[in-house]
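[audit] Reproducing an earlier prediction to check determinism. Same input, same settings, fresh worker. If the tokens differ from the archived copy the diff job will pick it up downstream; this log only records the rerun itself.
[audit] input (196 residues):
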Amino acid sequence: MKTVKLNTPIKESDVRDLHVGDVVYITGHIYTSRDMAHKKYKEMLERGEALPKDFNGYTVYHAGPVCLKNAEGGWDLQLIGPTTSIRMEPYADMVGEMGVKFVIGKGGMDKGTLDACAKYGYAYLQAAPGCAAKGAECVKKVVDVHYLEMGMPEALWDLEVVEFGPLVVGMDTHGESVYANLKKAAFEKLDRDYPL
């Protein structure tokens, strides 16, 4: 296992060099996106419309930040923690086609995402749940926000970050998933300790 510090835009070769268990810190821009934003991207792409951000080489964070308006009319981020990622599983290929290089969240994703990671060269990074205040310390600026009409958690937030992490590679481009490995080990233990 190794620790790497990467700057956006992230190169596919850097992602393919990572393995489950490696630790990643990101500097640059990350974009928050949850259920409603993913659905919106899908609809826009189907209509041939341009997305509000160039996702190629960047990171999608499954998170709903808490932000407050500041005196200058911008936003100050207060908290940011991961939300459960499995809800975004239906968009695994779309995310790859958008050129995303990292997906950050919690709880892992399923086989569709693991296959897409290998095909498109992106990885799933596990953020530490319960560390929303710590995560906010790495955010230096809220650049802008799109789709605020969908609500603060569901909006697309462009965040400028410095050494955002630690993030652990949970799914890599080599077909390895810490979540699948844990599930397999748990069932093997059940079968061994509680045979039918």
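[audit] rerun output stored. Observation attached for the diff report: The chain has a mean pLDDT of 93.
[audit] end
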